[in-house]
Amino acid sequence: MAALDSDPEPLDFAMLKAISGATDGNLGAHLQTLEKAGYVSITKEAVGGRTRTWVAATGQGLQAFRDHVMYLEEVLNLATLNRS
Amino acid sequence: MDDQKARESLDWIKVARRQTSELRNYRESGSIVTAWGFVWLTGFGGQQFIPAIAHWLWLIGWALALIWTATRPRRAYDNHALATWIVAVGFVLLLLLVIRADTRTAAMVFGMVLAASYAVIGIWAGRRFAFLAAIVLIISCLGWWLFPQWLFGLLAIGGGGALIVGGIWLRRP
Questions:
Q1: Which residues of A touch B1 (CB under 8 A)?
Q2: Which residues of chain A have pLDDT under 50?
Q3: Is the confidence at residue B72, as pLDDT, over 60?
Q4: How far is A2 from chain B (nearest CA, A)?
Q5: What are the DSSP calls for chain B, one per residue?
């Protein structure tokens, strides 16, 4: 989701695999879960006899991810406040 | 969630964002690097093997490569980057005219300028460019000091080839 959030255009499966370091099966399963949750949309394109898979974050997915980042930052800020 | 885990997650997000940007830069500039590799291959190849028509090969190659560069998706380059390249190349051409450089010196200077440019891009946009810079510089130096009679051929096959292969390599995630 971090990769999809940082780029407004869809990313292909190979690029997501390189960024995440996940295996084909693992990444595919994660993407299916995210698609079912409505967080990403997946489209397939035939290129010279091969299928290229494109993944894009939906508006709902981007919002959920950004909320999560805000939550992480709040956790850090609270921890800093508690220490001081 | 404790703050340690939150920090790790935020760090990972930062890394993923940087990697995405790097891979996108590589992919979008790959075809441009390959196009200029073909210009080197035909231009310097012409200077080595058919010098009578080499200037035409350079002229046509540059025109086609500039058109190719300017018609890529806008994010592969921006007007500032393209203008920077044009200013740098124009400055080098003028300098070579002022010092009345011969064709060998001009070829070597272009090899060094390209290598230096890729090294700078490597510092800012991703290490693969720095690797390309090292290959072009090594090949240029080999041609200049060890095989001077094959300088143009080395720049064509080595430099041009490195750019073509490098461009294809840049496109791979």
A1: 72, 75
A2: none
A3: yes
A4: 6
A5: --HHHHHHHHHHHHHHHHHHHHHHHHHHHHHHHHHHHHHHHHHHHHHHH-GGGHHHHHHHHHHHHHHHHHTS-GGGS-HHHHHHHHHHHHHHHHHHHHTT--HHHHHHHHHHHHHHHHHHHHHHH-HHHHHHHHHHHHHHHIIIII-GGGHHHHIIIIIIHHHHHHHHHHH--
